[in-house]
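Q: What residues go here?
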């Protein structure tokens, strides 16, 4: 009787363990084909597996900055002049992945840099170089903001007061800046490269379902010496800024390009409405941080950019 009782108990425990494994997605086992010793061995191994299996821990705590400092002086007249920001960052699980740094002068001129970690780590000591060759403002600058993100995309934003409270040097002096102070402009004579697109027709050589491309070419000029850096153009349905919109953008990494025909490109989203889209907002910047903007919301006329600025989106 005792042997039978033990066997029944083993079978009962094995059945409960099997149920737990079935809920966890494990393979079912036919216990009727196992002897008492095999059943006991399987139960022992199964219980050990259940006890030793850790619960999955998803990182929802954002990365943090522990320390911030910047070089004391920058000679902006030197080629490839840089302000080096040193940061100590930490994240509890998934690791520090991205850091964005913005510097600002007393007059509001900005310079920024983006840093990404090739292998996210829980602790990072990063040196981030911010390009200062094209700035025009001499005098006092400071670290204006830092945003740090972990590998899961959770981030923490630090303003200048929070960074200064960490005790590091967050201000520095710029001298020798004699750069471009003139804003770039947009000229007439641009070209609409995709006046009509179809949401159901993929770009040539791509599989069905690929988003259609849209693009324009704009004539841009910079009367200073820094040269055009980037431009973006927003298109909205029927020219209504509060309606469906998409945008095209483009940039130039080489300095000194003062007259360019810059191609701006983008894609139509799957949820985009069909109809006629008109340019509603233009933004152009140069390598010294000067910018030029036009908004139809404020009454600016963007029709001069191209002879046929409309982009028609068909089904």
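A:
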């Amino acid at each position: 009787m005792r042997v039978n009782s033990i066997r029944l108990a083993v079978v009962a425990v094995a059945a409960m363990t099997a149920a737990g494994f079935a809920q966890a997605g494990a393979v079912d086992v036919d216990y009727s084909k196992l002897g008492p010793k095999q059943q006991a061995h399987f139960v022992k191994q199964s219980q050990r597996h259940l006890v030793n299996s850790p619960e999955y821990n998803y990182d929802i705590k954002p990365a943090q900055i522990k320390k911030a400092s910047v070089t004391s002086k920058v000679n902006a007249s030197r080629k490839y002049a840089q302000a080096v920001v040193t940061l100590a960052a930490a994240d509890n699980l998934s690791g520090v992945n991205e850091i964005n740094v913005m510097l600002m002068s007393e007059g509001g001129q900005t310079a920024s840099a983006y840093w990404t970690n090739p292998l996210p780590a829980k602790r990072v000591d990063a040196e981030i170089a911010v390009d200062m060759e094209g700035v025009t403002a001499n005098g006092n600058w400071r670290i204006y903001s830092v945003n740090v993100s972990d590998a899961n995309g959770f981030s923490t934003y630090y303003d200048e007061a929070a960074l200064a409270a960490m005790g590091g040097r967050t201000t520095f002096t710029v001298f020798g800046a004699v750069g471009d102070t003139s804003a770039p402009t947009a000229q007439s004579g641009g070209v609409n490269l995709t006046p009509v697109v179809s949401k159901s027709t993929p770009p040539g050589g791509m599989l069905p379902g690929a988003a259609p491309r849209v693009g324009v070419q704009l004539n841009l000029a910079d009367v200073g010496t820094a040269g055009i850096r980037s431009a973006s153009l927003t298109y909205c349905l029927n020219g209504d800024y509060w309606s469906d919109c998409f945008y095209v953008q483009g940039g130039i990494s080489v300095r000194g390009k003062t007259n360019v025909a810059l191609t701006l490109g983008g894609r139509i989203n799957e949820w985009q409405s069909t109809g006629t889209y008109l340019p509603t907002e233009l933004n152009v910047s140069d390598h010294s941080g000067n910018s030029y903007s036009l908004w139809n919301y404020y009454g600016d006329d963007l029709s001069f950019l191209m002879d046929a600025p409309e982009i028609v989106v068909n089904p």
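A: Context that may help when evaluating the design: The two ends are 78 Å apart (CA to CA). Residues 56 and 196 are 49 Å apart (CA to CA).
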